């Protein structure tokens, strides 16, 4: 475990490894509101490619931020939801949103 920790420069670096991709904050934002199926997330996050959405969801799931539930149906439905741990990111995203508003008003 110590070896893994050695490659981080600071704690912000740790956080950015989990949420620091272009689309991850938007995915987390939508999942904080309610669970979504894959196609719903595709529509909610404009311009993201299917490959990138899959990759980001897998990474967020690996970090324990997002859960994936397969629902028995025809066709099979997969639903993504924010985990309890992932909910701890809500204040972070709210702060980013507030700063974005401030930045728009500034300019």
UniProtKB/TrEMBL annotation:
PROSITE patterns: HTH_HXLR. The keyword Transcription regulation applies. PANTHER family: TRANSCRIPTIONAL REGULATOR, TRANSCRIPTIONAL REGULATOR, MARR FAMILY. Residues 10-107 form the HTH hxlR-type domain. Pfam families: HxlR. It comes from the Bacteria. InterPro entries: HTH_HxlR (IPR002577). The keyword Cytoplasm does not apply. The gene is hxlR. Keywords: DNA-binding, Transcription, Transcription regulation. This is HTH-type transcriptional activator HxlR.
